[in-house]
User: Fold these one by one.
Assistant:
Number 1:
Amino acid sequence: MRRPAIVLVAAAVLLLAGCSVIPTSGTVKPGTTEAPNGTQLVYIPNDPVAGAGQAEIVSGFLTAASGRAPFTVAKKYLTDGFAKQWRPTTRVLVQESLAKLSTDGDEVRAEIPVSASVDANGLYTPESRTVPLSFHLVQQRGQWRIDSAPNGIVLTVPVFQTTYQPRLLQFYDGSWTRLVSDRRWFPVPRTADDPSAGVRPIVNALIGGPEGPLSNGVAANALQGAKLVGISPTTAGVTTVTLTTPGRRADATVTGRMQQQLVQSLGPTAPPIRLVVDDLVIPQAQPLTDQLSTEAYVLIGSRFGSLSPTGAFTEDRTLGARIAAAKPTSITVSLRQRLAAVLNAAGDVAIVTSTGAPRTVDSRSGLLAPTLDQRGWVYSTPPSGDLLAMNGKDTRRLTADFGDATVSAIQASPDGTRLLVLLDTPTGPQAVVAGILRNASGAPTGLTPVGAQNRIELGGASSSINGATWIDDADVAFLASGNDSDQVTTQQLGGIGGTLGQFANVTDIVGTTSTADLRILVQSGAVYFWNGSNWQQQSDPTSEISVLAVQR
């Protein structure tokens, strides 16, 4: 056997060589990978070159496959028979650095360093690894063509971010009272030709159901079992989506939930939707509203209350007075339920209500700050991960597997469907987002298994993560401590991460509904919020805030 020929191929060359990039508006500028603001890039791949060698054909194919459906040019690199079998939408590999091509006889092997992948359902998974891809080539009409290759396509990070976009699919929590976001990635639709082009993948994904931590019955889906009959071309600005429910007749409650999920998943920029289920036109559903207060809730001395955007403090003299009397070091409060979970000065977890004395529900040694969900369940654990759920009447030990890691923080999601767990592992800090499993009555029974969790790497063994919070029900934030300053990082669940600058002496971080009300507490007792470009002080400079509360 001959020694394989090995070639290093730069990501931009492997995927973009021979491509012209044409904005859909403005001046045409071939050969660039950037577009003016407000424009959309369209990649125009080249046909196979006559007499090209095997490696050139594979490289050209990968380049052409970075275009858009129906991948007409990419299929020209394949044999006639294989062109009918190749499934480009099965998977996307997001390439982050140099790829290596090696040729051995009629085989070409590509080793692709990837930073993430997207499956056929649009689920984005961060993963830093090298993926081997094998291609077999044969002669067809005197030219090399590929007759065997993996399904899917390979995109560099800039191309992926241009040709794919995240969408927040909406499912329900188990009580059918609140929508829950599940981020997916879909190709950017060519809406200039058909404004309804982006509707089909979202409808199909909704029918397919929730993924990751929201699977295993954690989230409910009104569209489960439905079948898509068709999506009509937009008429008078309205797109008609027609569904059928084989084997059952969906009642008004179910179809109303279908309408809610569909409209909220498509978002405000989508064309108006007319939903038809089993030949019945479904009336427009009223949006669900269960918004948390965007004010900060804080403990100042022996008073607990709200902090307005201008920093004015208003004491809560009922529930707040009882919270303050418990002398808490951490607070999670539900104003809707008039309920709070606190860790008191003695290190015990207590439930505080508007009437009666605080009730201690967990007095084990070394307890972490507890958390509270939308159904009134309090979650508490020591670093060992022996997780309990309590509601003042019942105590349940939850099944959870954290391996050889120790737990440093927990926080329930705003919608009550998942638990954010901060872990210390031998290889460095990690965060896990796991679904909360429940029985038929809604009582927690455990967390989803490892395979149905979001795992987030937070740095090497020397990294120090001192805080974690939900920004909203689809994004989380972390507080990383350094020698001279602390850094706030953000992470989309099922998406990409970012940073929100640095600040010194941060002791806690708390989110509520969006990045705009993400807040930090510093050692001086001041509270700051993120104003879109930097951290701005919200509290009165003379305030000495000891606890920044989490809302649920």
Number 2:
Amino acid sequence: MDKNTADQLKILMDTPAFKYSPHGSNGDGVKIPDHLKNLEESRFSENNFNVVASEMISVNRTLPDYRSDACRISGGKINTTELPRASIIITFHNEAWTTIIRTLHSISNRSPRHLIEEIVLVDDYSDKYWLKGPLDIYVRQFEIPVHVTHLPERSGLIRARLTGAKIAKGPILLFLDSHIEVSEGWLEPLISRVADDRTRIVAPIIDNISDEDFGFSTGRTDLWGGFSWILSFKWFDMNGNDTQRLIAKKAEPIRTPTIAGGLFAINREYFYEMGAYDEGMEVWGGENVEISFRIWMCGGSMEIHPCSHVGHVFRTKTPYSFTKEVNFVIRRNQARTAEVWMDEYKEFFFKMVPSAQKMEIGDLQERKSLRERLKCKPFKWYLKNVCSECHMPSEYHSLGAIVNKLNGKCVDRGGRVLGGPPGLGTCIHSHEQQGNQVWSWTGNKEIRSQNFCLSSNKKGSELKIEVCNGSEDQKFEFNRKIGNIIHQTSGKCMTNAESVATVDDCKNSRQEQVWDLEGLKK
């Protein structure tokens, strides 16, 4: 070790995090003393989390065992001597010193050594000095082999993870973020489930580490992953039956249509057989939904294991710079997903994000050939069999704007209060706000925009926007000959009431009750 690196490392370790520190013990949050308040505020933007709080917490801080009693019992029954080993892959760019070191210590402290082949750290062209020589030296102390690779240029999470996967030797790849802390018993369930079925991807329960005080709060175990019409990952509540099943069996894995993407385990050979990551995607964003569609449609499965808890620092925004505008990068990645995997349902995405239709999204032939080679199922199969409770209807009659014949205004949910009437506004074209005017008349006779549906009551006294619930109050017919939208239980017609839409007695001659459904199928 050269003297400069030694001096740097000495300074970096001169914080409470590397000495005995009671702050944050047992997952508690940290209260910042008054004399550090200004420093706390000025340094928050470094990583968009409280760096000062992190530096007050030991890199070896204690955490409770967050598992349920059922999980502790089931975990004790796993024969770990016969399980394969995992290579843990962590990519980072300008990560804070104490958070990445705490990540490594938590893995080392709470993982059976014989289940970890190595930890592969991929530095995505950081410019912070602590992520160069000091990190290379510090990781030598761990019993687990830790390999650090410094990329010569900015590659983004997707390509950095691919680099890490190529280096990894273990039969299981376990992708983690660089600002996490694992808790007791986290590793065994993930490896065990992948070992039982090589076509299975398994993710942990993601606990929240506060970006303000680094306090732990356990993640809900009654959620599964889905997606929105703009292909963003979204958490969904389980329905009643699944909730009851979970209450009865708190150690059972939860089938999930999508995963959050930051943390998951997969068989190494299967990862490559299924096309790894889409190398045509840039930086990060959308890759988790793409791999979710691909795994399910091509014969695999995904689940969340309630007995595996990993804490993650959630931030309201990324502190890192992109060579291109962040939303452009994400939308481009999502457009690639839509074009390759969604068949005719890609129109849901492109209607919501019209700017994506004109994007240059790169060559798709390799990914389309992959889909053909793997003999993957249609996206309609995925919606019906895997994600039937997602907000995208597998059967629909129309998709697009609902335009009134009288004045050409469009039904709009933008800025409307839940439980209030839908608005009527100037029709928007080729703009992101167009998404508020995209509606689908579904096979279930809903008039739906994402998870919002038009609704009335038996008396037809009002028209309002509500969360879709499948009730008769949310079913409508469309008279193709006249253009009336008729509420099924009241028999009343949707009516233009100037700034809002309402329902009223049907009168064939009233232009206020004549509508065009954009994208209406024959």
